[in-house]
Amino acid sequence: MTIDLHAHSTASDGTTPPELLPRLAAEAGLTVLALTDHDTFAGLAAASAAADLELVPGVEISCRLDEFEVHLLGLFVDPGHAPLAGELELIRTDRERRAVRMVARCQELGAPITLPQVREIAGGAALGRPHIAAALAAVGITEAFTPDWIADGGRADVPKHVLSTVDAIGLVRAAGGAAVLAHPRSVKRRASVSDAQLATLAEAGLAGIEVAHPEQPPEVRARLGEVAADLGLLATGSSDFHGDRKPVRLGECTTSPEVFAALREAAVSVS
């Protein structure tokens, strides 16, 4: 088995339609793929209908850990679980409000972008910062995720509605899923999740942490593996595939069959 538990489609901020993603994954040699679009299950039906491999229903939830944002993967979740689906809807509608205000702030700061332009880039997906960044790049502002523009706390940033990570873990478990913290020490993110914070999340029901990830170098993976073992957490590996939006290929990082089986068991045990 070759297993990739983190991938995105055009249902959120990827560039690959969900109905094409399973074929690309199979061509890349994968036997298991989790579709984990940001705060939505919108691509699951199309991906499931086209799947040539085992497709794990998943979602990547934007949530708050102390003073910064983290992302939580919900794997094997029931997309029809009303409390989780309702919270994701709230996050998405707030994202629309946030994106509209961020475009306006960019305009006030002198960037000649428009909301219709950002919507065209999104192609029907829920609006997000990557779409605004692409619009900024089109007018020559290639470093969008900086304090000058749309980085967290930047001049054009707008606060958004988020769950606490502990609450998000509870929702994933209630929906019959296993919760895995995505890229906790990515070199591209503003802050890293500390050992103490991981211990707190483990006590709250976290099942695993994403150890092998393209944005986490070998020394970071080694340390995260040690922490996972100490806390009794499963160590996963995933590509975080976004299509053409990131220079990452499907299956670039993978999860072992043993860890995958343990994740499935963890999800079944709370369903």
From TrEMBL:
Pfam families: PHP. Residues 3-65 form the Polymerase/histidinol phosphatase N-terminal domain. Coiled coil: none annotated. Transmembrane segments: none annotated. Gene3D superfamilies: 1.10.150.650, Metal-dependent hydrolases. GO terms for molecular function: 5'-3' DNA exonuclease activity; 5'-3' RNA exonuclease activity. It comes from the Bacteria. InterPro entries: PHP_dom, PHP_domain, Pol/His_phosphatase_N, Pol/histidinol_Pase-like. This is PHP domain-containing protein. The lineage of its organism: Bacteria, Bacillati, Actinomycetota, Actinomycetes, Pseudonocardiales.
